[in-house]
Amino acid sequence: MLNMSDIMETITMIQEENLDIRTITMGISLIDCADADIDKSCEKVYEKITRLAKDLVKTGEGIEKKYGIPIVNKRISVTPISMLVGVSGGDPVKYAKTLDKAAHEVGVNFIGGFSALVQKGFSAGDRELIEAIPRALAETELVCSSVNVGSTKAGINMDAVRLMGEKVRKASELTKDRQCIGAAKLVVFCNAVEDNPFMAGAFHGVGEADCVLSVGVSGPGVVRSVLSKMPDDAPLNVVAEAIKKTAFKITRMGQLVGMEAADSLGVPFGIVDLSLAPTPAVGDSVAHILEEIGLEQCGAHGTTAALAMLNDAVKKGGVMASSSVGGLSGAFIPVSEDAGMIAAARNGVLSIEKLEAMTAVCSVGLDMIVIPGDTTSEVIAAIIADEAAIGMVNSKTTAVRVIPAIGLKEGEELDFGGLLGYGPVMPLRSQSPAKMIHRGGRIPAPLQSLKN
Predict the structure, then answer these.
(1) b/e map of 56-91 (b: 16 or more CB within 10 Å)?
(2) Is residue 349 packed enough to be buried (19+ CB in 10 Å), middle (13-18) or exposed (0-12)?
(3) Radius of gyration of the chain (CA)
(4) What dotted CATH number matches 4-190?
(5) Please, are residues 392 and 155 in contact by the beta-carbon 8 Å criterion?
């Protein structure tokens, strides 16, 4: 049972410290929508999504009014569409346009699941979907895409990595007149999770129920506020304890909202994803938490250690508050979406190499990083491979969402607007990894995968 007194403590957090429910996400299985006729399959997809999610936005708005808790986004995730393409054949962009039409109809912000899971190889529909990703993202507004190219159990599919380097660049090229937004809606994963409610990487895993409601909570401003009230000489274990207690309170609020929304919609409650997801707004930055811990600026030596402590404390607080914590749950470090990260990147303190090191201890990976417009597909693929290797060896989820800024060079900026924010073009190494990338094949699973 939830005690309302636990929730009332968070009112100040909501009003003054940017605490919000970042998203309520309805996961919908489309397995029963598969059909040998792609047009019939699309009809089934549209009918099922609009039927199950018709009241999602209204329900979220009702909870916002009831508790005064902002719910920033209402979203949908669906079964990886490559599975439907494998049955129907045909142009996968038809599915993307169906998803986009359904998302517009029910009024959600994004719909995720134009996805493929190819960590060990390509099954029917996978290659076709991957080839269609740039066009699908260019010709839709609300559709997000993800591809899982590696896992600790399977190793890394380097043929898929090479393909994704090409598709990330092509997605930017096809949307260069819209700030290269296509690449901002595309995530490449290693060890992707099936219950992630956050975009752009959300999809509804095949092990999930037919329909579930999950919640993503965000509170960087709250954590920073708590730390700002502590003495400068407070030991780090005391700092970690304060973060843990704060995460506990935030998670309780998220569970209240998730359970109530699920009950109203008549679907099972899935998970609370307690991720410190920042925004470009002042006071809502993970980088500023790290600076409150004691760094002059995010990216300085010590950043990785501070982030590791933050991430661990968030997870410990979350699992004490709810038995349904899942998704990614930790600290996100998307450059363009975090005011402190943007400032550090502009000043040259935060480099892509430091960000890569940070991804070894945080929730996701190289996220929302703007790179030079002339970056080759092989360099993008090599960035994906590096990040996938970190995830594979450390048995954690890692991801890459980089945006080649077509026509722009280091120091210039892209501005996506809204939660996606804006960011400077960050420099990359110029030496070519092309020979390695074009070898293809598979990087074998590490020894620690043999746990059975």
Answers:
(1) bbebbeebbeebebebbbbbbbbbbbbbbbbbbebe
(2) middle
(3) 21
(4) 3.20.70.20
(5) yes
pTM for the structure as a whole: 0.92
Q: Write the DSSP assignment of 152-190 as a string of letters.
A: TTTEEEHHHHHHHHHHHHHHHHHTGGGTTHHHHTEEEEE
Compute the distance between CA of residue 104 and CA of residue 106 in angstroms, rounded to an integer.
6
CB 71 within 8 A of CB 63: yes
Fold for 224-449, please state it.
Answer: Anaerobic Ribonucleotide-triphosphate Reductase Large Chain (3.20.70)
Res 6: pLDDT:
55
Tokens representing 256 are: 């209240």
Q: Quick one: CA dihedral 174, 148, 38, 211, positive or negative? A: negative
Every domain of the chain and the residues it spans: 4-190, 224-449
pLDDT for 34 beyond 90: yes
Is the pLDDT reported for residue 5 higher than 70? no
Beta strands of 288-419 (E only): which ranges?
366-372, 398-405, 413-417
Reported as type and span, the H/E element at residue 215 is strand 211-218
Pair of tokens at residue 250: 């935030």
Q: How far apart are CA 334 and CA 348, in angstroms?
A: 16
Q: What is the bridge-based pairing of β-strands 71-78 and 110-117?
A: parallel
